[in-house]
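Q: Predict the bound structure with adenosine monophosphate.
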Amino acid sequence: MKDCLFCKMASGEIKPDMVLETKELIAFRDINPQAPLHVLVVPRKHITTLNDTIEPDAILVGKMTLTAQEIARNTGVDGSGYRLVMNCNADGGQTVFHIHMHVLGGRQMKWPPG
Ligand code: AMP
Ligand code: ZN
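A: Predicted complex:
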């Protein structure tokens, strides 16, 4: 999608600090990290918000979780723990309108989240 930051990253037009790439997904370090580990897992396919996912996207969304698990393992936070976050629309705090999963780790997370 034209003018979408994460689509430009997926196509290689903009080069983020890439952690992992597959045919369907990219994962890169967040530019404004909220934890020692803060990686975004992003499907190459443009989906604007979580509200726009449909049944055929179920495998893709599942693979986002498995990719997050792999990143946690590769960075050694799988045992200590980590948090996965998907923000949706204004109240959810979404600022980039192409779905993504935050992988946060390396510190104690708080609950409730802010
Ligand atoms: P959200 O607020 O859930 O939509 O998350 C969007 C995330 O994208 C934020 O955590 C931003 O810090 C991050 N972000 C924005 N621009 C970039 C960029 N150029 N490279 C890496 N991460 C970015
Ligand atoms: Zn996009």
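A: The longest strand covers residues 37-43.
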